[in-house]
Amino acid sequence: MTSLVLVALLQAPAAPSPSPSPAAAPKPSIVIQTATAPGLTVSYLTAPWGPVTFSAMERAQEGFYNRRTWPFARLESKKALTLDGTTVPPGNYALVFHPNTPDNAGMGLEIRRIAPGEFLQTGNVMTATPEGETVWQTRIRFDAADTTEPALRVSLEPAARATKLVVRYGDRRLERLLSDRP
Questions:
Q1: Domain membership flag for residue 106
Q2: Residue 16 domain flag
Q3: Residue 34 needs a FRET pair 20 to 30 A away by CA distance; which of 13, 15, 26, 166 works?
Q4: For the residues 4-17, what does the mean pLDDT come to?
Q5: How many domains does the chain contain in total?
Q6: Phi-psi region for residue 2, left (φ > 0), alpha (ψ -120 to 50) or beta?
Q7: Would residue 8 count as lying in a domain?
């Protein structure tokens, strides 16, 4: 009798495999995207929105995400720009995000002149910050956005005698004017 049951089980069609749940869907690839404006190109990684990670970088703490700088984009300029009164000569730059520090100095943004070439790496949001000279740095605060971007998005938008650099990450938004004139 046992052998009949075993034969019946072996001959029975296999149960259909369950469909993957939406939570198990593969994450989108982290790729390099580009935005352009006259005389400017910005390349950036499509880092997925991580609200817990970003929240940790906003807080004053000594956490993993606060201990390093985050180079998130490369700016190539063929013309001189002015940013908050500082002249940024034509060149190749890393846009570097600085998380808040344990002393609560606030988050920061740096424009760092770097050697020509791409330092961003497809699939790698932990790329090392390239060596170079800081040309401009300031404290920043991301504003709340009305919508949530699923991944980092950087754009260059026209403005009066300027180009607006817009950084969207999840439900946060940061804007800076890159002026064509001092």
A1: yes
A2: no
A3: 26
A4: 39
A5: 1
A6: alpha
A7: no
pLDDT tens column, 42-101: 999 999 999 988 888 888 888 877 888 999 999 999 999 999 999 999 999 999 999 998
The range of the structural domain enclosing residue 138 comes to 23-179
User: In Å, how far from its chain's centre is CA 142?
Assistant: 13
Helix/strand/coil (H/E/C) assignment for every residue in the chain: CHHHHHHHHHHCCCCCCCCCCHHHCCCCCCCEEEEEECCEEEEEECCECCHHHHHHHHCCCCCHHHCCCEEEEEEEECCCEEECCEEECCEEEEEEEECCCCCCCCEEEEEEECCCCCCCECCECCCCCCCCEEEEEEEECCEECCCCCCECEEEEEEECCEEEEEEEECCEEEEEEEECCC
Asked, for residue 13, whether it belongs to a domain, the answer is no
Residue 128 makes CB contacts below 8 A (sequence gap 6+) with 71, 119
CA 168 to chain centre: 8
